[in-house]
């Protein structure tokens, strides 16, 4: 089974590598509509057990649920494996539009180990996830503010904790009876129908029967012949050693006006859409207002400054001049650790390209949640193929800094950022392995990731560097003096640390509201499908990073401090610090994570996300300042 999975990874990777230009065909597998005739067999698949308390997924069959004769893993793409999805077959089978009442699935007698396993999952609020016709199982919950509408919780709880009347001991009860509702949309011309909804109401029932147990045993608590069905959990099934659990289920089929193309709409409905709309518009208006002010100040100030400098004629006036023109002979002097700056700028270009293309695909609808793992897979592939732009950008900048060893800078670009991220990811994956969670990436998948890195990304970085280094050197608009100019003592508010920390506030402010929804979708396991908003916020982020870096760079040059290269990168990049701090705030205020391992995983993954955000925003700020300085110093007459 493992070999088949590994083969599917390799086949998928090679196909994606050679046919990347047609990559949209990989984003929508298995989402074409399926027509079912009356009586057609419907097979329910089971997915991982999930908990927002532990963030550690487990395979469905780690608990003593009813099993089919042979457990078969469904073929999974790279993104699904990285998400911890483990999709397998199950003994739950329906017949289209043929209701079933009180179907007995199996009988399980618990031992101490099995009972302990179930109790642990109940304590950690684990939910069971199932899939029918590519639709995830949901539990409808009526909204308090709107009686006619429902919220949908993904998966049903394994069980509940409770206390018997007159007792103080807490007991554990398992949901062993499932009342399924399959919603379908019928074709008016034919008798076929399409599935548009898959819901469940779980119950805990201590089933009873007469005589000894056999295949033909009829339950007294749930009997289709006597039309006795389960409607509540008043006599629940306790979980304890030697306890007998009988798993049963009902199936109802309900016609629906929802068409197949719109069946995901209810899943993707935001619970607080009004707050979301207001927050996005509010954020957009504030940023646009600030951007307008910044642009107006910059245009007026620069126009006045350039006009004044170009009118200087006498020696006396020239001696009196102060401001950014004084440092024209040092402003393009290569910075300290210029190689490292080239590497980070190249990596930032790679990130920018990956996110931009992924956003476009998502806005066009190619990365729908119906394609599980599609977004993760697309991001990985785009990162790999954007390596060519990383190599090109780092080599062009390296040559501008008068560098000659382009192979050295290429190796650093290809390995530094991915190496750091892979090292952190490997440690986190080892922790997940230690917890025996299905979220641990298998060895075959890990090997596939290494192949994507070494086999495709690294060669593309070399190709990009080779092309970039062969291009003519970018000439500066002014010459650099041989002897560096002394930088005068700076005011406290122009101190590098202070100005860098101030610079990160505005970019973070532009995205932090959307960040709340993204963190909620990741850590509270909700669907995120508002890529239109996200794309808008991304544009706001780019504009804000560029503008705040230019403004602070201008103030810095006016203070006769010409060490702007690294400062421009760190100014907007410091927003990543605020992102990480907000992630910590979110952890302590919104999440109920109990296990230390889960906390380490959270902060580990958020560290990777913040590091990536730093590289992206820093690169945007750097290129904005590079464009600004070249534009300004080419606009004045230097004697």
TrEMBL record:
Q: Which residues cross the membrane?
A: 275-299, 341-367, 373-393, 414-434, 446-469, 497-524, 530-557, 569-588, 600-628
Signal sequence, start to end: 1-25
> Does the record's keyword annotation contain Cell wall biogenesis/degradation?
no
Q: Does the keyword Metal-binding apply?
A: no
Gene Ontology cellular-component terms listed: endosome membrane; Golgi membrane
Q: Where in the cell is it found?
A: Endosome membrane; Golgi apparatus membrane
Report the record's Gene Ontology biological process terms: protein localization to membrane
Q: Which InterPro entries match?
A: EMP70 (IPR004240)
User: Which coarse location class applies to the principal site listed for this UniProt protein?
Assistant: membrane
Specify the protein's topology with respect to the membrane: Multi-pass membrane protein
Q: Which UniProt keywords apply?
A: Endosome, Golgi apparatus, Membrane, Signal, Transmembrane, Transmembrane helix
Taxonomic superkingdom: Eukaryota
- State the similarity comment: Belongs to the nonaspanin (TM9SF) (TC 9.A.2) family.
| Protein name according to UniProt | Transmembrane 9 superfamily member
């Amino acid at each position: 089974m493992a070999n088949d999975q590994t083969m599917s990874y390799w086949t998928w990777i090679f196909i994606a590598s050679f046919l990347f230009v047609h990559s949209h065909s990989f984003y929508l597998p298995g989402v074409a509509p399926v027509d079912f005739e009356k009586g057609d067999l419907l097979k329910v698949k089971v997915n991982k057990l999930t908990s927002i308390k532990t963030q550690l997924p487990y395979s469905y069959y780690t608990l003593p649920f009813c099993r089919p004769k042979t457990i078969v893993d469904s073929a999974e793409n790279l993104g699904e494996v990285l998400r911890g999805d483990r999709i397998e077959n199950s003994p739950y089978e329906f017949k289209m539009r043929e209701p079933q009442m009180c179907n007995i699935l199996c009988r399980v007698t618990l031992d101490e180990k099995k009972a302990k396993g179930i109790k642990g999952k109940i304590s950690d609020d684990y939910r069971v996830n199932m899939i029918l016709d590519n639709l995830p199982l949901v539990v409808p919950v009526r909204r308090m503010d709107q009686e006619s509408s429902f919220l949908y919780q993904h998966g049903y709880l394994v069980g509940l904790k409770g206390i018997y009347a007159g007792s103080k001991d807490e007991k554990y009860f398992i949901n062993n009876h499932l009342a399924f509702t399959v919603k379908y949309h019928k074709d008016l011309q034919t008798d076929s129908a399409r599935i548009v909804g898959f819901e469940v109401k779980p119950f805990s029932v201590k089933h009873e029967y007469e005589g000894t147990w056999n295949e033909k045993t009829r339950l007294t608590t749930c009997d289709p012949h006597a039309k006795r069905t389960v409607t509540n959990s008043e006599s629940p099934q306790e979980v304890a050693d030697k306890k007998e659990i009988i798993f049963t289920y009902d199936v109802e089929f309900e016609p629906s006006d929802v068409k197949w193309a719109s069946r995901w709409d209810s899943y993707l409905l935001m619970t607080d859409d009004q707050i979301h709309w207001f927050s996005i518009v509010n954020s957009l208006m504030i940023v646009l207002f600030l951007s307008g002010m910044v642009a107006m100040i910059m245009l007026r100030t620069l126009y006045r400054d350039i006009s004044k400098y170009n009118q200087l004629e006498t020696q006396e006036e020239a001696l009196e001049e102060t401001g950014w023109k004084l440092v024209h002979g040092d402003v393009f002097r290569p910075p300290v650790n210029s190689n490292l700056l080239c590497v980070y700028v190249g990596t930032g270009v790679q990130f920018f390209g990956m996110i931009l293309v992924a956003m476009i695909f998502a806005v066009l609808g190619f990365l729908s949640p119906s394609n599980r793992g599609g977004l993760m897979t697309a991001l990985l592939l785009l990162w790999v193929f954007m390596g060519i732009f990383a190599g090109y950008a780092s080599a062009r900048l390296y040559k501008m800094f008068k560098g000659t060893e382009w192979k050295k800078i290429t190796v650093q670009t290809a390995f530094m950022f991915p190496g750091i991220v892979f090292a952190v990811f490997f440690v986190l994956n080892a922790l997940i392995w230690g917890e025996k969670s299905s979220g641990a990436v298998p060895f075959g998948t890990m090997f596939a990731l290494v192949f994507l890195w070494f086999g495709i990304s690294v060669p593309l970085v070399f190709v990009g560097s080779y092309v970039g280094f062969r291009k003519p050197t970018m000439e500066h608009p002014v010459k650099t003096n041989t002897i560096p100019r002394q930088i005068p003592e700076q005011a406290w508010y122009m101190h590098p640390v202070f100005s860098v920390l101030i610079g990160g506030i505005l970019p973070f402010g532009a995205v932090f509201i959307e960040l709340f929804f993204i963190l909620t979708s990741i850590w509270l396991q909700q669907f995120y499908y508002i890529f239109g908003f996200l794309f808008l916020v991304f544009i706001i982020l780019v504009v804000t990073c560029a503008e705040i870096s230019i403004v602070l760079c201008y103030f810095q040059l006016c203070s006769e401090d010409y060490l702007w290269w690294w400062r421009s990168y760190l100014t907007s990049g410091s927003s990543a610090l605020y992102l990480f701090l907000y992630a910590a705030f979110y952890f302590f205020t919104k999440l109920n994570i109990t296990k230390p391992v889960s906390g380490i995983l959270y902060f580990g993954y958020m560290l990777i996300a913040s590091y990536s955000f730093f590289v992206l925003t820093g690169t945007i700020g750097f290129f904005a300042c590079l464009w600004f300085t070249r534009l300004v110093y080419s606009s004045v007459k230097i004697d």
